């Protein structure tokens, strides 16, 4: 049987963005554009509960869309002149009408509100320029973000577009930054803050009054971090946290926000997130996993290594169903709950819960995988540094034969508040197909087991390193076919930090690939989340003298004189989450010490390269990874 290769990325369909109205479902797919591998080809796909799937639109740019009246949708795309075009599309006849073209604006349609009005998201600038000047000023924090680059003086806002008058109106002051919003039953709630100089980490909560055309403050900034908002039986409920016990990564609880006093009244403690944190490398298409239906909030949570769907009715949560994979979109079609998710056997597909509780697969993308080798994750139990039982997985190599020896690669996830599951992961399957054991686990700091297990503030490189080595020891003990002299190590983001840390603390690995990594916590301060993240995760306070010593203790660069492991660094030049100076520091330090090393810089890509970057760059990243391991492990 043939194995998966890096270039099989070109054959993989990504899916997400599920939205429904009545008995119709529409979702989005993204496929590599064979005419230009710097892009994806986007499609809107319809499923109406009776027939199969039908593609109703294909476009070169991402189509943000909303349902109007069945069978119509509005969608926005950006043309080659960087103008936003608003279209109306009949989902039955596929007739397409250009409604409006917005000059010099990047906008995305979000909701149909009131009569003949659309809610759009977009950006505005405190100071308008033509963009032609060969310089820009930096006057506030953040000054860049991972997905957008320079954002100094830039604000993300909401607008109402009147379909009759063709007028566009902003809903907030010019210096107001909107971080999230929820529209339900004619009510618009948004989280954000009006600021200059420094954007607050905890945003305020507001309701927009459509009659008075102004914001009503419900919660002040710098008090709560809000995961979601829901109107249930005309009462307002929030999943939120004050971040006081476990820092900025703290999981939310459920609160009732009292109308008159704006007091937050605790309804139920939760200790899990309200999102999918089970990571994989097929995340091109965004999606929504929280919504209100029949006076219940439906949401996805990451529990241990999988996703579970719950409801919250204003009093308690209730389990709806579990899924061994990663759910990216969730919605009701009629009385059926549908979702888009990956599984151990496949990237994203459209599924539906049947009335008997069984799950029915509605889409059949990526059928070629049935003829390819997909390694089945085999569970490995081990004891962590506290003596508690944990588990991870091993993927066996293609054409494995008992008694033969094979090289192996340890993968470390990012976050650290993320989690590995046993769903489809192209990179790992490629390595297994190339003849490697691949093993991975969720060490302390991972999401899915509550705040206490996920809290590694001030401990980076200590207990997490211990757990990683204990897991490696147990894998080698239980899988004697692994050649202990040919071990590789790979990780990105926090996993890149751990890769840099591990090679400075042990010589047991013969090759390493460090992706979008962290080398120095002082350099990490320039990250788009640096001021909050570094102080929080390092348990320090704004670079006081004692804190500098602690930051340096936890910096992999401090231990570079110990490194002998040949290491490949992969980094994007527009990665402002873990900025590229960290990669240059590690690469240069190893090069000057005659340790075999190489740095590959992906131009125009950001922190999300491995998951949703341009197809040509993603393939190059996979090929560089495999070539490095082949060179030093085979």
From TrEMBL:
Keywords: Hydrolase. Residues 424-634 form the Peptidase S9 prolyl oligopeptidase catalytic domain. The keyword Hydrolase applies. The keyword Transferase does not apply. Pfam families: Peptidase_S9 (PF00326). PANTHER family: DIPEPTIDYL PEPTIDASE FAMILY MEMBER 6, SERINE PEPTIDASE S9 FAMILY MEMBER. This is S9 family peptidase.
């Amino acid at each position: 049987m043939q194995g998966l290769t890096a270039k099989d990325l070109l054959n993989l369909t990504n899916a997400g963005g599920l939205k429904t109205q009545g008995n119709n479902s529409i979702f989005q797919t993204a496929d590599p554009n064979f005419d230009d591998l710097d892009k994806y080809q986007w499609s809107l796909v319809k499923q109406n509960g009776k027939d199969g799937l039908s593609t109703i639109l294909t476009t070169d740019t991402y189509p943000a869309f909303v349902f109007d009246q069945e069978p119509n949708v509005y969608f926005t795309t950006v043309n080659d002149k960087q103008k936003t075009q608003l279209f109306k599309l009949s989902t039955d006849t596929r007739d397409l009408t250009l409604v409006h073209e917005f000059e010099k604006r990047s906008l995305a349609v979000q909701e149909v509100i009131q009569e003949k009005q659309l809610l759009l998201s977009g950006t505005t600038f405190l100071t308008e320029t033509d963009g032609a000047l060969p310089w820009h000023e930096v006057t506030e924090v953040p000054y860049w973000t991972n997905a957008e680059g320079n954002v100094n003086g830039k604000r993300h806002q909401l607008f109402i577009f009147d379909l009759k008058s063709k007028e566009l109106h902003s809903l907030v002051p010019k210096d107001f930054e909107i971080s999230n919003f929820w529209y339900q039953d004619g009510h618009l709630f948004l989280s954000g803050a009006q600021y200059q100089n420094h954007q607050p980490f905890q945003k305020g909560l507001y309701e927009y009054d459509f009659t008075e055309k102004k914001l009503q403050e419900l919660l002040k900034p710098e008090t709560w971090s809000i995961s979601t908002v829901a109107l249930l039986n005309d009462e307002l409920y929030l999943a939120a946290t004050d971040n006081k016990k476990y820092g900025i990564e703290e999981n939310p609880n459920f609160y009732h926000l009292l109308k008159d006093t704006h007091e937050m009244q605790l309804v139920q403690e939760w200790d899990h997130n309200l999102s999918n944190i089970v990571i994989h490398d097929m995340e091109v298409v965004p999606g929504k996993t929280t919504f209100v239906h029949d006076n219940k909030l439906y949401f996805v949570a990451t529990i241990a290594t999988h996703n579970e769907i719950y409801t919250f009715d204003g009093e308690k949560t209730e389990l709806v169903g579990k899924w061994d994979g990663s759910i990216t979109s969730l919605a009701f079609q009629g009385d059926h709950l549908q979702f888009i998710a990956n599984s151990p056997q496949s990237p994203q597909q459209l599924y539906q819960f049947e009335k008997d509780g069984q799950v029915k697969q509605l889409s059949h993308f990526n059928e070629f995988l049935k003829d390819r080798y997909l390694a089945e994750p085999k569970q490995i139990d081990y004891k962590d540094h506290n003596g508690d039982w944990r588990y991870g997985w091993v993927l066996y190599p293609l054409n494995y034969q008992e008694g033969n020896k094979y090289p192996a690669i340890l993968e470390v996830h990012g976050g650290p508040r993320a989690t590995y599951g046993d769903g489809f992961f192209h990179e790992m399957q490629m390595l297994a197909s190339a003849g490697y054991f691949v093993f991975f686990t969720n060490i302390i700091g991972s999401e899915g087991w509550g705040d206490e297990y996920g809290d590694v503030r001030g401990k980076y490189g200590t207990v997490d390193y211990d757990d990683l080595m204990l897991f490696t020891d147990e894998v080698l003990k239980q899988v004697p076919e692994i050649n202990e002299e040919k071990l590789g190590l790979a990780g990105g983001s926090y996993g890149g930090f751990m890769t840099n840390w591990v090679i400075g603390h042990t010589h047991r690995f013969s090759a390493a690939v460090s992706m979008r990594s962290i080398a120095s916590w002082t350099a990490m301060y320039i990250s788009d989340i640096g001021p909050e993240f570094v102080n929080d995760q390092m348990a320090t306070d704004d670079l006081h003298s004692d804190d500098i010593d602690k930051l340096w203790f936890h910096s992999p660069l401090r231990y570079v004189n110990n490194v002998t492991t040949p290491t490949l660094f992969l980094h994007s030049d527009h990665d402002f989450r873990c900025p590229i100076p960290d990669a240059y520091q590690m690469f240069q330090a190893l090069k000057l010490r005659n340790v075999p090393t190489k740095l590959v810089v992906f131009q125009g890509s950001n922190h999300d390269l491995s998951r949703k970057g341009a197809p040509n760059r993603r393939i190059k990243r996979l090929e560089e990874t495999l070539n490095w391991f082949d060179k030093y492990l085979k």
